[in-house]
Amino acid sequence: MKTTTTILFFFFMSVNILAQTQRWAIQGVIQDTQAKGLPSATITLLDPKDSTLVTFGVSNPQGGFEVKNLREDELLVQISFVGYRTFSQLVKKPTGSPIFQFGTIKLEESTEELEGVTVEAIAPVTIKKDTIEYNAAAFKTQPNANVEDLLKRLPGVEVDSEGNIKAQGETVRRIMVDGKEFFANDPKLASKNLLAEAIDKIQIYDRKSDQSQFTGIDDGQREKTINLQLKDSHKRGYFGNVTAGYGTDNRYALKGNVNKFTEKSQLSLLGLSNNTNEQGFSIDDYINFNGGIQSFSSGGMVRVVVGGPGATSSIPLNTGQRMNGIMNSHAFGANLNNEFSKKTKMTGSYFFNYLDHYIQQNSDRINFFPQGNLNFNEQSRQDNVNANHRANLIVDHQIDSLNSFRSTTNLTYTQSDRATNSITRNSDSQDNTLNSGERTNLNTGDNFQFNTDFLLRHRFKKPGRTISANFNLGANQSDYEGSLYAENQFFTGTPSTEIIRQQNFQDRDALNYGTNLSYTQPIGGRKYLELVYNFRQNHNRVNQEVYDWEEENLVLNTDLSNKFNSIYTYHRPGANLSWNRQNYNLVTGVAWQATRLKGDLLLADERIQNRFENFLPSLRFNYNFSNTRNLGFNYGTSVTEPTIEQLQPVVNNADPLNLYVGNPELKPAYLHNMRLNYNSFDMGKFISFFANANVNYTKNAIVNSQTIDENLVRTVMPVNVEDQWTANGNVNFGFPIKPLNSNFSIGPNGVYQRGLNLINGQEDEIKISNFGGNIRYDYNWEEYLMIGLSANLSRQRTGYSFNPQQNQLFFNQSYNAEATVNLLKKYTIGGNFNYLVYRSETTDFSETIPLLNLSVSRFILKNNKGEIKLSGQNLLNQNVGVSQRADVNYVEQTVTNNLGRFVLLSFTYKLGSNPMNNMPRPGGGGMRMIRMGG
């Protein structure tokens, strides 16, 4: 503690001395030769001695600029704007005034290059219409750094500990490489595997929808996108790196990637193998690993949530930001982009992931019921093994100037094995055992998914008039088998014991196909009409057979078995009207959706027939105050139909003490969604402000009703309730502190939701509020020292209408400190300390987890192509993870095993067949010399 206090004292003393140095500023106005202001021009200030970057700024919408807090006696000022000649002038610190006035600077249009020598500064940031472009050379990173490390250096870009990327306050959904798709738009595969030194420019923009790009009509839909422009030197030969490491407790890590890019093709190979809990997969892979979405409604302990399918009504609050359990992961991927001609392009990728995940959990839950509380404890062990193959192929062909087509095909094949053993106990408030059980579930099987889309587009000669037709076909086939052994004891009334021995077999087939037609017509005054029609039909066949062991014979259990065929048919015609103006666009529309369901329960000889009809209005509005300041509002409606599992009146007894049964009387949930967002980013001062607000209101919401029998066996059934709603909002404000070489950001957020649930036939209103936020401070001293301090806080309160005394209040907190020190251009020392706090005010639960990681690296070989790294992970040996949650009628704390302390020694070698790849990159915003003529 004394050491920390001393460091902070000297740090702030040095800051104070620095702040006392006399500062000065430059001011001026940038115009073209017609006296029109040039907005977003770049003002770059260089040290004239060695041409390194000192600072830079950007002009305002009127062309005015001011760069403050200068302390150098002499600076080289360069002003640049796309399409204009660069202005350069040597400026000395003024003596009579703290401000150097440029007055009006008129830039001339660039026509042809002058002979002689031109000195061109590397402008760190430029704005090209709606695109912010960063020059990678102005943001220095360490050798062998990946793109993720580079993104962390960019103003206005945030990367969290799990690699999720935000730009200007919005989540980045895709990363392109030279404008081409990369691994089916999984951003992490690009950011974590491509080398930072390969990147020339980073472009951040709001990508319009494919339909908007085709028609030329702005439909208001946006997707935050990053495009990585490669250096010319990395478009010849190959580049990449490989890493191998081995450590204590037989921990190992292997990872590598190789890239070969040209102007017309891109080939990337990547692979990894480790037992250090490093993830080699995206969220889609993880869902497939868990057996698909349908597995969440079967097997294991039933978690009751407020809301219908897909709703995130329950609020899990595990802020540990690390994967629990012990994982062995192996992955391989290949991505290929090829431009056969100017008219034909192809993108393809293949990704394989093998994961062995072992989990031990201990869960303590208090269930609240009108007749009294029940305490629940479960100790479980799971071993899940999954092998997942995923392939994607996209072909674009421009038939002629008016016609084009695109085909998109996705294939996924998954094999999985799961073994689960759990011991459960229910007790009353006096800790008397009411029932207990032990069960073992074994499941194995495979799943195959296929989807293909064929899009044909025609553009008429009249601008804005288009027609497009999309045809899609999909298939899903799964085959699983498993066994259940359970021994349950009941102590209420007459004590009894129940033993269950079962085998189950399940195969499913699904086929879906449909079409989407769109016609756009200009109607004058930059207004457009779009007529759309969507048709889709889904065929499902489920064959689930459950057999009881009677002595040595298997006997079909007709109560748990099910053979079900169904057909969902959708028709949705609609129309949209759009107004496009220079500063705003407005799109309003309405659709009518008719849904029909026909289902046959073959074993019960019953038929389910439902028909639903809904009008679906929508409204989208975007207003651009400038290139970096905009306001958006979206209102939309949608219908969530019950799933096949929710409609089948068949009992799922994977957990015999927590049963699940479907409800054929379910109606679709009708959702209203409203979203308001405001974004502002000052490119000159790097001040950002982003705010978002969302409100969801659902009629006929689908929730889970609970019924508890005399043996305390819980049966869960989905039912419709009148309504529920959720409101959430978040704000993020960030700004630099230039005298301290620092950045600061704060982001408060909040969620409030109200829902209804049924417990033993009694309607219960639940109100959940969650308020908190995050705060972060970053300090950077050139490339030598980087410090980051952050905190993430959360306060959740859950209130129950049937008994306010059972209301819950708990807190989750995460504090993080990280630092990197670079010494003598050859050494890097890094550390990360994370302190997690979980505390409940109502159950006296309290848990703290300190996590410490340290590493030291030494760069070797010519041009730092090699790196030796010694790293210690979880040095305080905190081998558990904790989460706590309050939901419909319970509060729960869960403790899960995690990877303990280990030390790893690794070696990384940078690959590259082109000598230019190994040249040192200019750092700190150096300058390029361009010689023209003789």
UniProtKB/TrEMBL annotation:
Residues covered by the Outer membrane protein beta-barrel domain: 458-775
InterPro entries: Beta-barrel_TonB_sf, CarboxyPept-like_regulatory, OMP_b-brl_3
Pfam families to which the protein is assigned, alphabetical: OMP_b-brl_3
Primary location: membrane
Keyword Membrane in annotation: yes
Annotated compartments: Cell outer membrane
GO CC terms in record: cell outer membrane
Position of the signal peptide: 1-19
Protein name per UniProt: TonB-dependent receptor
Taxonomic path: Bacteria, Pseudomonadati, Bacteroidota, Cytophagia, Cytophagales
